[in-house]
Structures are given as C-alpha cells and as structure tokens.
Amino acid sequence: MKLAEFRLRYNLNTLPELDLIHLSQKLRKAAVLIALYEVDNELELILTRRPTHLRAHPGQISFPGGKVEASDSSHQFTALREAEEEIGLQRSNVEVIGSLPAHKTFTGFEITPFVGIVKQAFHPVLDPGEVDEYFTVPLSYLLKQYNRHTQRFSRKGIEYPVHFIPYQEHFIWGATAAMIDLLCRQLSSSSAYTGSV
C-alpha cells in the first residue's frame, strides 16, 4: 500500500467494532508509536524486540514506546519521546496523523497507540537497555487477514481474545498484535473506500 492510499483509508474509514477487555485494577498509562516508513513506494511498519533482561514483557515484539512520565506533556509526547530514546527516531521526523483507542492489558497497562508517518529516511540507533532488535514488516503482509490470527483464552472464567502474527523468525502477539489487527481492520474497511488491497 502506498502512502497516499494509506492516508485516504486511515482518514475516511471508521474504526471496526472493538472487542473490549474489562479490567478492575488501576492501570498504568503508556503510549506507543505505530510508525510507518515508506520504502520503495511501499509502507513498512517499525517494530522492536525487547531485551530479555527487562522486567516487563522481556523478549516480546513491541512498538517504540513506554510509560507516561509525570513530566510528559501528553501521551503523544510520551510516544514520540520513547521512539527517539529507543531507536533514534527524531520526533521532528514523525508526522502523527492520529491515534487508536487505548488498549488495556492484563499486565496492568493502558496503552494509547499513535499512528505516525516517518517523513525522511533515518538510521536507527538502538538503546541496548530498551531494544534488542529493530525490524520492519511490510504493511501489505499485515493487511492480508490470513496472516493475522486470534484465539480465545479463558482467564478467571472470562474468555478474552489473544492476537498473534507470525512473521519470518518473529512471533508478534498480545497488545502489539491486537493494535496491528485493529489498524489493519480499519484500513480494510469498505465503509468509505472500495479500492483493492
């Protein structure tokens, strides 16, 4: 999918119906950047793999992002600050075009994802304390519904959806896969756009 088509679909299509998770505990606020990077006229989604020494979500695939700090002026500021710290993506090099609904996790977080376009080519500089690996996934791969999977699991007698996406040697799952699935379902919605994927 080219950038112009992405913008059109993102701006015109409505969000699909959400499969909400109801959690009673107090949730810590976090924000992530769903960054799209145009390579040879095709969009790639930026992802990272967390180091195994981290206490929260060790070794998992994630978007650049993290906890909202008291000094952050907004959740969007958090997402951009964390992307700059983790992978060296300067906030001035990102055009934020919107956000998705906050995603609640069983690990006690409420994560607000912001969708952004990387404006110019950049060389990732990884913070080894936060990121083990940087990689991209073609948006065209993610848009194919058969590459995105959902299974339902029971927790304390309540069934919840768990999303996962295998890609090459990577296994994307949990909140990251759920946010990717939501974005892809929005982009694939036929309510406002009838072109082919």
Q: How many domains comprise the coordinates?
A: 1
What is the strand content? 35-45%
**Which CATH first-tier class would you pick?**
Alpha Beta
CATH topology title: Nucleoside Triphosphate Pyrophosphohydrolase
For the record, the CATH architecture stands as Alpha-Beta Complex
The strand count comes to: 11
- Give the uncertain stretches in residue-range form: 191-197
How many alpha or pi helices?
Answer: 4
Relevant CATH superfamily: Nucleoside Triphosphate Pyrophosphohydrolase
Q: What portion of residues is helical?
A: 10-25%
Kindly, what is the distance between the CA atoms of the first and last residues, rounded to a whole number of angstroms? 7 Å
Q: Using only CA atoms, what is the Rg? A: 16 Å
SSE order: HEEEEHEEEEHEEEH
Structural class: alpha+beta
User: What's the main sheet like?
Assistant: 8 strands, mixed
Please state the overall shape, judged from the principal axes of the Cα atoms.
Answer: globular
Report mean pLDDT, rounded to a whole number: 87
